[in-house]
């Protein structure tokens, strides 16, 4: 069952993130306080999927009023290939349409073979006409990858 994510889901979502090999977690942005701030700014667009009484999938989804971005799209390995990812992405996209957001993007690591296959299957466009730039404003916000 897909539903809107709340801060009360944080501990279970944190466990899910930490169960996924190669998942990148940021020390500040992905802390309870960071996620609470994100969910306050985007109260209806992030989702979790619950199966067998536990959270097995999650997406952080937010927008700036013009464009949306999906972050930390994941499904527990045991529950993959059951349409959960597709349901969650559709849920997020419907919520974004309700807020009159017309475009959504995401970043996927080149090494994320499973994730990239998923996005290709979902018919998302892989852009080859632009570069991605970023600038760290907080050097304490370190990314650690789950082994």
Automatic annotation (TrEMBL):
Query: Which residues constitute the signal peptide according to the record?
Result: none
| Entry GO MF terms | acyltransferase activity, transferring groups other than amino-acyl groups
Origin, by domain of life? Bacteria
What are the alphabetically sorted keywords of the record? Answer: Transferase
| N-acetyltransferase domain boundaries | 1-140
Official protein name in the record: Acetyltransferase GNAT family
Q: Which Pfam families match?
A: Acetyltransf_1 (PF00583)
**Per its UniProt record, what InterPro entries does this chain match?**
Acyl_CoA_acyltransferase, GNAT_dom
């Amino acid at each position: 069952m897909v539903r809107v994510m709340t801060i009360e889901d944080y501990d279970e979502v944190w466990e899910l993130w930490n169960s996924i090999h190669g998942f990148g977690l940021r020390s500040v942005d992905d802390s309870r306080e960071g996620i609470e701030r994100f969910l306050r700014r985007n109260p209806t667009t992030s989702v979790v999927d619950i199966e067998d009484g536990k959270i097995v999938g999650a997406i952080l989804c937010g927008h700036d009023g013009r464009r949306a971005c999906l972050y930390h799209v994941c499904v527990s390995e045991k529950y993959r290939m059951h349409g959960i990812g597709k349901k969650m992405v559709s849920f997020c996209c419907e919520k974004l349409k309700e807020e009159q957001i017309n475009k959504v993007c995401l970043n996927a690591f080149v090494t994320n073979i499973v994730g990239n296959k998923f996005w290709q299957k979902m018919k998302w466009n892989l852009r080859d006409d632009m570069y991605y730039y970023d600038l760290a404003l907080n050097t304490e916000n370190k990314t650690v990858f789950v082994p």
